[in-house]
Amino acid sequence: MTNFDLALWSFPVLLVLIFLRAPIGLAMIGVGVAGTYMVIGSTAMTLNQLKTLTYGTFSNYSFSIIPLFLLMGQFATLSGMSASLFKTAESFLGHRKGGVAMSAVGACAGFGAICGSSLATAATMGQVALPELRRFGYPDSLSTGALAAGGTLGILIPPSVILVIYAILAEQNIAKLFVAALIPGIFAALGYILAISIWMRVWPNAAAVSPRVAWPDRLKMLGTVWPVVAIFAGVVGGIYGGIFTPTEAAAVGAAGTGLIAWSSGQMSWGRLQEAILSTASSTAMIFFIILAAGIYNNFLSLTQLPQSTAAWVGEQGFSPWLVLTLVLLMYLLFGCIMDSLSMVLLTVPIVFPIVSVLDFGMSYNDFGLWFGILVLIVVEVGLITPPVGLNLFIINNMAKTTPISETYRGALPFVVTDLIRVVFLTCFPSITLWLVWVMGG
């Protein structure tokens, strides 16, 4: 068996291990170590990697942004802003058909602007919105499907942990990626709201509506969400305006969100400890997967798989758009069996060098931004597709009387809107890049 064949066979072996519920990090380390040994016939390189790769990876200053954004999400959860966001959105939309579900999606978008984690967004907004959806008689499928889909906005609306990791792997500008994600993020929220509207037109009596709120009361409610606007403007605006580096902006965001949580009376000493421990645990999990992906990708580099594949694609004369379509389909398929973080860490170092040399009629930097947003969207779809749709499981665990099959069915219309959005943004890259260009990118 050649080294190239060995690398190709490593993928099905890795997927089988994941399917058998092996932790993704351990699976990648196991396959990477075994593959490296089979290539060079010695453990010396692997043992050396455990020292040099670990230090070389985590001494990267950019990775410090990850625990800070995670801590910001923890503080945002404690601050009570999730309830304010939902009540504010409900005051504007609740009187419409499907308005309470639309309010949940809008609140998820707002919370995603200060959280950066899909799972945290889904879990936090599920606690706030699920009881209200049930109070107004929404079907379990629509309630859980809308909240699971809305939770995905946590990684699309900047700041986003997944976007940070993509930026580091593909050597892209974090600030420009955050700006490029804004319009697709708004499109995502509007697409989910449109899906709810169509659902309610098909079944107009499926749920009740909340009473109309007078405009003075709406404006009063709007005043309660100023911290979200301030934090979002401070973090994203500070990064793009050159006031902060991304890490400094994350630190400012975490400190600001922590102060808001403290001033709201929700931040006890015990909750502060819980937030820090939860952040440390999540950071350790992410960093372990990053290290595991590094070991596995080093094995693939040793076999020359990425280089050989890129050369082969170039020799075949395939259309760049065909290659891109196949790559996006691969991501959609992987999203059914892998979590979003592992998928990005595993594939971007292999896929990006292949597609970045193809001619899409744009500069290398513009392509890197556009491709990153497309990857983020298809990764987001994986969060609400079975069998490993993590957002589906989080929301279904909260709605204990709802069968998982109902949650799967409820997520289907939102998956359709996501796929339409992928096609739309693929065909018209300028939609993603326009705001970057306008802001001087």
Task: Tell me what you see in this structure.
The protein contains 22 helices and no strands. The protein is mainly α and 441 residues long. It is globular, with a radius of gyration of 22 Å. The relative contact order is 0.15.
What's a quick, concise take on this entry?
The protein is mainly α and 441 residues long. The chain is 78% helix and 0% strand.
List keywords for this structure.
single chain; mainly alpha; 0% strand
Provide the fold topology:
Blueprint: H1 3-19, H2 24-40, H3 44-58, H4 65-79, H5 81-93, H6 99-112, H7 118-135, H8 140-151, H9 153-156, H10 161-170, H11 174-202, H12 215-222, H13 226-240, H14 246-263, H15 269-302, H16 305-316, H17 320-335, H18 340-355, H19 364-382, H20 390-398, H21 404-427, H22 429-438
What is the oligomeric state here?
single chain
**Tally of strands:** 0
Low-confidence segments, given as residue ranges, are none
| Count of alpha and pi helical runs | 22
The radius of gyration computed from the alpha-carbon positions, rounded to a whole number of angstroms, is 22 Å
Q: What is the residue-mean pLDDT, rounded to a whole number?
A: 88
Please estimate the helix content.
over 70%
Largest sheet: none
| Proportion of residues in β-strands | under 5%
Question: SSE order in H/E notation?
Answer: HHHHHHHHHHHHHHHHHHHHHH
